[in-house]
Amino acid sequence: MLQGVTSGVTLAKRRIEMNRAAEAMKFLDAAAEAAGRAAALTARLLAFGRRQALDPRPIQLDELVNGLLDLIQRTVGPAIEVELRVLARGWPVLCDPNQLENALLNLVINARDAMAPNHGRLIIETAHLLLSEADTAAWEGANPGEYVRMTVTDTVTGMTPDVLAHAFEPFFTTKPDGQGTGLGLSQLYGFVRQSHGGVRLESTLGKGTSVHLYLPRCHDTPDASQAPTATGAMPAPTRRVPRLLLVDDEPVIRTFAAESLRELGYEVLEAGDGPQALRLLNTASGRLDLLVADVGLPGGLNGRQLADAAREMRPALPILLITGYAGDAIFGQGRLATGMEILG
């Protein structure tokens, strides 16, 4: 993938130096495609390694599943019956809703592929469970207590014991070359474990497979957690040029980001680390409309800590955290306040 990027850029530069810029576009397109594939692979590996940037929120599983029902039915096709057995207004869970949707759709696609070309039944169900310390002992970071289990079951093929034993390993796949990366279940595994839950597989050859996702109960209600507050209220639209502070320690990335934002019509202040950003927040005259900060910053103040400090100085300031590799830096200080968002 990197060879595709470097070769495309190199050849594009040569064509431009030869005053044949029109021919450079195909090489730049090829480089962009290779970079996109590399970014997707990196995101999946970060998910398996439990290092992706998550934005956990209290969510209702029944609402999430019902909202995806039409897409699920179109994905599996008319030959497969979809049956929902989800609890209405069950316990909320705390996890990233976008990642959970991706996980569910990946399971649906796996089930469809396992049942094709046969007719079959796809069952999605939820249940409330009280798990003991023995139940959660194998899940690092999970604690005994109340959990919601979401189960996705297909009814046809099943797995052999050998396939079942390796199912969560990165790059393991039973599909032909070019038809699967072998990262779907490993990505699911990492996401659920990063959400302080667990995953369990059950399969019988010739009968089908069940994938159980266990997510800890959240005692906050989704509506209450996302209600707007004065602290995080977005500023009213104005006709003036919006002004933001961009914080990133990589000069090349900061330059590209600042240039892109200026092309969109923003006035951009730049800082290379947290302490410099705080000085700008303290001395900058006039209003700031947004703080955009990388999470991984040097100088003893990461992006999340900078966000909290910025809110002390400017309580209504909206904040966008950007990251490719988050670890525990974002949520080490607790959940994000209203008006803070993450862009992976």
Detailed description of the structure:
The chain has 344 residues and is of the alpha/beta class. The chain folds into three domains: 2-48; 57-223, 2-Layer Sandwich (Heat Shock Protein 90); 228-343, Rossmann fold. Helix content is 39%, strand content 21%. Strand 8, helix 9 (251-263) and strand 9 (267-271) form a beta-alpha-beta unit. The chain is globular, with a radius of gyration of 23 Å. The protein starts with a helix and ends with a strand. Residues 224-236 have low confidence and may be disordered.
Q: What's the quick description here?
A:
This protein starts with a helix and ends with a strand.
The radius of gyration over CA amounts to: 23 Å
How many helices does DSSP assign?
A: 11
Distance between the termini: 20 Å
Based on helices, strands and strand pairing, what is the structural class? Answer: alpha/beta
CATH topology of the largest domain, by name, is Heat Shock Protein 90
Q: Assembly state here?
A: single chain
- Main-sheet strand order equals 2-4-5-7-6
CATH class value of the largest domain: Alpha Beta
Summarize the biggest pleated sheet: 5 strands, mixed
Strand content: 15-25%
User: What's the order of the H and E elements?
Assistant: HHEHEEHEHEHHEEHEHEHEHEE
Helix-residue proportion:
25-40%
The global form is globular
Average pLDDT reading: 83
Which residues form runs of ≥5 with pLDDT under 50? 224-236
What is the total tally of β strands? 12
Q: Which homologous superfamily in CATH is the superfamily of the largest domain?
A: Histidine kinase-like ATPase, C-terminal domain
**Structural domain count:** 3
> Per CATH, which architecture of the largest domain?
2-Layer Sandwich
